[in-house]
Amino acid sequence: MKKMQLTLTGKLSIAFASSTIAIGTLVVMPVEAANLNLDGMYVFGGSLSDVNNSFNATGGAIPAPPFFSRGRLTNGRVWVEHLADELGLNPTPSTEINPLNPPKEGINFAFGGVTTGDKSIVPGLPGLKQQLEGFVGSLKGQPADPNALYIVDGAAAANDYLGGFSKTPVQPVANILNAARLLADSGARNILVVNMPSLDQTPIGRQTDPVTLGLISRMHNRALSRGLKKLEKTRPQTNFISFNLNGLFQQAIANPNAFGIKNVTDSCTNTNLYDPSAFPLDPSKLTVCKQPKDYLFWDSIHPTAHMHKVIADSAYEILSEELEEKKISALSATTEEVSNSKGTSVPEPTSVLGLFAFGFLGSFSSIKHHLRRPKVL
């Protein structure tokens, strides 16, 4: 498959700002927005998470209106924006950083069209590897904010395969795991790692080589899952949180009505970003479905804005569950340590505290079935 080559106007410049170190105290409380004690969000990846970066870097050429919402490769807001809202945060796109006024709630480094390495379908844009190196370098030896959320959007691997940069999952998976490792070794303590939706289920995958793409997707996600489990053992101080995006997509495809979707095979638009002959995009040739909300896919690979909201809700539920479990474990360990040090038993919690704990534990059981963590496929 040929790589799409585009000429960029102007020189790409990316500002990396040092992260602000803020230390908070983890306390057990009900699962609500802004109660997860996360004071920032740092996003690394590709088009699934890009908010304005590729748009700014290409002078508005990619993603081009009216094919896409301004600065986003879909028809509206992307999942990390919705997730940030739920967490009460507002990360700044890396291309919009003002060095004189560093962002206080995190940075979004994701660029559409990039791979997990240092290559990109759109020449000159920083891949996942470069994004991580830039961020770590900006720390200048200081630790990363331990109370922030760090997202490694591994769905960028789709460009490794569809862009013809890699025929096997070996290097893309290694790149994603290395990104998570770099963050952990830099002081990050909450890292959400996203896997890749099965490419054979996308409109472009169905039209090209679904058998090969399906095999690569399965190998990729299984290798990534195994790698993350190994990382967890070697770095127990870090919360490596797996987000099985592929499983979520598989659930939507198997039961679209539960997600408010009707069409899970076709794209709402006739846009194929992997077709070099289609560029520059001609607005006169654009066709758009009547009800985008009914579709899983906006173009040949990217989900609709409706699906992005579903993704965000699922990610928030997983974060809530994982981080609350960590707090419970940490509280139990501290209680046991205090008890042992004093040589006396710790009194049973009062009925009020008991009901308090029961409240947030019970909230996990109310998670909708399509948002439960699916098995890695």
Key traits:
alpha/beta, 4-stranded parallel β-sheet, two-stranded parallel ribbon, globular
Any overview of this molecule?
This protein is globular. The protein has one domain (41-371): SGNH hydrolase (Rossmann fold, 3-Layer(aba) Sandwich). The protein has helices at 53-57, 79-87, 128-139, 157-162, 170-185, 203-207, 210-234, 245-254, 305-342, 351-364; strands spanning 41-44, 92-93, 107-108, 149-153, 190-194, 239-243, 263-267, 295-297. It has 377 residues and is an alpha/beta fold.
Summarize, please:
With 377 residues, the protein is α/β, with parallel strands linked by helices.
Write the layout of secondary structure elements.
Blueprint: E1 41-44, H1 53-57, H2 79-87, E2 92-93, E3 107-108, H3 128-139, E4 149-153, H4 157-162, H5 170-185, E5 190-194, H6 203-207, H7 210-234, E6 239-243, H8 245-254, E7 263-267, E8 295-297, H9 305-342, H10 351-364
Parallel strand pairs: 1-4, 2-3, 4-5, 5-6, 7-8
Helix pairs in contact: 2-9, 3-5, 5-7
**Share of residues in strands:** 5-15%
CATH topology: Rossmann fold
Characterize the biggest β-sheet: 4 strands, parallel
Indicate the radius of gyration in whole angstroms. 21 Å
CATH architecture: 3-Layer(aba) Sandwich
Q: What is the N-to-C order of secondary-structure elements (H for helix, E for strand)?
A: EHHEEHEHHEHHEHEEHH
Mean pLDDT comes to: 82
Structural class: alpha/beta
N-end to C-end Cα span: 25 Å
Shape: globular
Name the CATH superfamily classification. Answer: SGNH hydrolase
CATH class: Alpha Beta
| Number of H/I helices | 10
Helix content: 25-40%
- Number-wise, the strands total 8
Largest beta sheet: what is the strand line-up? Answer: 1-4-5-6
